[in-house]
């Protein structure tokens, strides 16, 4: 009998959900194909909701976990930054999500964001380091910036200049897939150990 696929929850906002893209081009769909091509038996769950802030993510975390994921890719903060929300609240919300995931012993990859630069140096200084701090505090692996190599490149973004197009998502997947594979391997080792 074939083993059950590892269930990976991609939990985040419009960057996760694939805003403006056909489902097949979304981050979870492209990542699932990349992981299967790399020999992993996985099923990705698209837990992205466009417009969600870290507070929105925290509010729906419990019922999203009813899907019983084996791993979680946690991506929040873009909308907090776009709205200029207090970085301390963003930090608190993401910390609460990481605490909950740790309680359920669900291995998690934290995916970071950067603050919009037009919000000023003080905001950026408060916002940008929170992901590194939380990754260290909760001892989870970190992708420092989800849009690394994609932000600001018109060829990789939709006409709004904010959301990646299919090629932008492919660029992100190419960078994040190895991190997810490392998390899968660590999970398998802890299961067999």
From TrEMBL:
PANTHER family: THIOESTERASE 1/PROTEASE 1/LYSOPHOSPHOLIPASE L1, THIOESTERASE 1_PROTEASE 1_LYSOPHOSPHOLIPASE L1. One of its GO terms (molecular function) is phosphatidylcholine lysophospholipase activity. SUPFAM superfamilies: SGNH hydrolase. This is Arylesterase. InterPro entries: Ester_Hydrolysis_Enzymes (IPR051532), SGNH_hydro (IPR013830), SGNH_hydro_sf (IPR036514). Residues 10-168 form the SGNH hydrolase-type esterase domain. It comes from Hypericibacter terrae. Pfam families: Lipase_GDSL_2. It comes from the Bacteria.
